[in-house]
Amino acid sequence: MSRIVYVNGAYVPEEEATVSIFDRGFLFADAVYEVCAILDGKICEFEGHVERLIRSLGELDMGMPVSKEELLEIHRELIKRNNVEQGAIYLQITRGTADRDFVYKKDMKQTLVMFTQAKGLTEEKAGIRVVSAPDIRWGRRDIKTVQLLASSMCKTMAKAAGKDDAWLVQDGFVTEGSSSNAYIVTKDGKIVTRNLSTSILHGITRKAILRLAAELDMEIEERPFTIAEAQDAAEAFFTAATAFVYPVIEIDGVELNGGKPGPVAKRLNEVYIEESRKSYI
Ligand code: PLP
User: Fold this and answer.
1) Fold assignment, 4-118
2) Is the pLDDT of residue 1 over 90?
3) Which atom of ligand 1 is nearest to the CA of 205?
4) Which CATH architecture has domain 128-279?
5) pLDDT for 191-218, tens place per residue?
6) 84 C-alpha vs ligand 1 centroid, how far in Å?
7) pLDDT at 107
8) Where in the chain is the domain with CATH 3.20.10.10?
9) Does the pLDDT value for residue 140 go beyond 70?
10) How does the average pLDDT of the chain come out, rounded?
11) For 225-258, how does the pLDDT look when each residue is reduced to its tens digit (9 = 90+)?
12) Is residue 53 lining ligand 1, measured as CB closer than 6 Å?
């Protein structure tokens, strides 16, 4: 059975889903997206993701094409129709369709598409190996736009080098992963992750993890760190909605924690899953 996706009010098999070639998402990457994790067929952190979606749209001079309640209903319907127990649910909102022109018009009829991806989220995590790469993305990484080409190229480069992902570096400091927030745990047990700014995406998982770490009395420093500091750390990990807390076991050829997932990442991942099971909807 083919996957059912959502396009502008209709649930259709993915082969039948179409969007205009004049959609500004296609022509100008004039679009934002969000992705929530699906756990036990339920949606994780819906409120946080919608809040960030509304902010991303607002920063690009757009509003929401449907209400928050309607959006939740579409999420639930798609998960049900595709029978997804674990995985991700994506939504993409473009400014809409118009003849090609750099200048956009106000209040266009937006395009809303949504789709699910089934994948395991709670299995044992072996850890990933990352390489550093220059962060060549635009300057408003706090807006979750669909301009993912730089990240896509970096991750592909990492894979071609036999590794799993890239950690992006600007002015000598790690900004974030190609599609995740980056953390290290210092030898004296502090969790370090880059402070919020326009240089990184304000991760919804990041926010939850920092809250949970504080509740576990872990010390947190929100500041930039270098690749050298990360290579000298006790452990490293990343967070993202579709990965939860994921160990990083090697950075630019240097293994951390003997090339094994570290205890802090493991503990935070367990706690995050526990908490998600209490609050998903
Ligand atoms: N940073 C980037 C560049 C991302 O693409 C993502 C997730 O897609 C994140 C961070 C993590 O954000 P979240 O925890 O909200 O998924």
Assistant:
1) D-amino Acid Aminotransferase; Chain A, domain 1 (3.30.470)
2) no
3) 14
4) Alpha-Beta Barrel (3.20)
5) 999 999 999 999 999 999 999 999 999 9
6) 21
7) 85
8) 128-279
9) yes
10) 97
11) 999 999 999 999 999 999 999 999 999 999 999 9
12) no
| pLDDT one-digit tens code per residue, 44-92 | 999 999 999 999 999 999 999 999 999 999 999 999 999 999 999 999 9
**Could you give the count of Cα atoms lying within 13 Å of 80 in the half-sphere of its Cβ?**
7
Going from the Cα of 141 to the center of ligand 1, the distance in angstroms, rounded, reads: 10
Token pair for 161? 């080098």
Is the C-beta atom of 240 inside 6 A of ligand 1?
A: yes
CA of 178 to the centre of ligand 1 (A): 8
Residue 241 vs residues 78, 128, 148, 245: alpha-carbon distances, Å: 18, 16, 16, 9
For residues 213 and 32, give the distance between their C-alpha atoms in angstroms, rounded to a whole number.
30
Pocket of ligand 1 contains residue 94 by CB under 6 Å: no
Range(s) of the chain covered by CATH 3.30.470.10: 4-118
Q: Is 179 in the pocket of ligand 1 (CB under 6 A)?
A: yes
- Centre of ligand 1 from the C-alpha of residue 180, in Å: 4
32 lines ligand 1 (CB under 6 A): no
DSSP per position, 136-180: -S-S-TTS-BS--HHHHHHHHHHHHTT-SEEEEEETTEEEEETTB
